[in-house]
């Protein structure tokens, strides 16, 4: 059973990387990690089931604690793998390819799976920390496009008013792509106010951005997907 345990551990750590690199399949990579974790955990159950509740109660307690430690290690391993998968899933969408609705679905499934295997909220937050940064980039991109009244995300609007052009420029200057850091909703509001940009559509996305930061929830999912897929 020790051999089975280590096979499970190695499979958990190695298989997802190979699948992710060779086949570029995030969902299959995640399933492979969970399968390896399950193999490793099951390999410990035999030792527990062979113990009685009588004279070997202490031994049973020891084995249960050992199994719990193994499970915690597997949760940590799953968290690391989830972080890698979600970061790749989010950053990869900047290059096109998979539809946004599918990426959001995979994200939600991964987070759900982490909670189902008992990962703490701190572990879940760590796993998706870079995914959230990517979402922040999307929100800020939506807002900048609307500020300059672009008809196409990658086409500058030469007819935009001077105050809108200046607001767009200042918002870009507040970004730090090296760290994936975007201006906060309040910073954006200050820029808009300073350049007298009054626009209900812009204000709506600033509110949605703030809502996401506070709740980790995309408020207008269909609109978010629509804007993202045209980028």
How does this structure look, described?
The protein has 231 residues and is mostly helical. It folds into two domains: 2-127, no CATH class; 134-229, no CATH class. It has helices spanning 2-23, 26-49, 57-92, 100-116, 121-127, 129-147, 162-173, 185-194, 200-215, 221-229. The protein is elongated and about 80 Å long. Mean pLDDT is 78; it is low at 1-23.
What is the element layout, followed by pairings?
Layout: H1 2-23, H2 26-49, H3 57-92, H4 100-116, H5 121-127, H6 129-147, H7 162-173, H8 185-194, H9 200-215, H10 221-229
Please state the structural category. Answer: mainly alpha
Helix segment tally: 10
Q: DSSP strand (E) fraction?
A: under 5%
Rounded mean pLDDT score: 78
Largest sheet, in brief, is:
none
- How many beta-strand runs? 0
Overview features:
231 residues, mainly alpha, 10 helices, disordered N terminus
In short:
The protein is mainly α. The protein has helices at 2-23, 26-49, 57-92, 100-116, 121-127, 129-147, 162-173, 185-194, 200-215, 221-229.
């Amino acid at each position: 059973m020790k051999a089975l345990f280590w096979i499970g551990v190695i499979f958990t750590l190695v298989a997802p990387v190979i699948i992710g690199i060779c086949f570029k399949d995030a969902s299959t990579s995640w399933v492979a990690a969970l399968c390896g974790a399950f193999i490793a955990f099951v390999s410990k159950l035999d030792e527990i089931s062979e113990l009685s509740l009588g004279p070997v109660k202490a031994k049973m307690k020891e084995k249960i604690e050992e199994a719990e430690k193994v499970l915690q290690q597997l949760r940590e391993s799953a968290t690391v793998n989830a972080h890698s998968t979600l970061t790749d899933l989010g950053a990869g969408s900047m290059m096109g390819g998979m539809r946004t609705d599918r990426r959001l679905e995979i994200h939600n499934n991964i987070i759900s799976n982490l909670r189902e295997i008992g990962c703490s909220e701190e572990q879940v937050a760590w796993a998706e920390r870079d995914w959230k940064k990517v979402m922040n980039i999307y929100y800020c991109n939506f807002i900048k496009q609307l500020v300059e009244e672009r008809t196409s995300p990658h086409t500058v609007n030469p007819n935009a008013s001077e105050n809108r052009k200046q607001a767009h420029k200042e918002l870009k200057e507040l970004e730090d792509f090296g760290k994936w850091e975007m201006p906060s909703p309040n910073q954006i509001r200050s820029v808009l106010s300073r350049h007298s940009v009054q626009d209900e559509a812009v204000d709506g996305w600033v509110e949605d951005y703030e809502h996401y930061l506070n709740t980790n929830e995309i408020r207008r999912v269909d609109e978010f997907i629509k804007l993202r897929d045209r980028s």
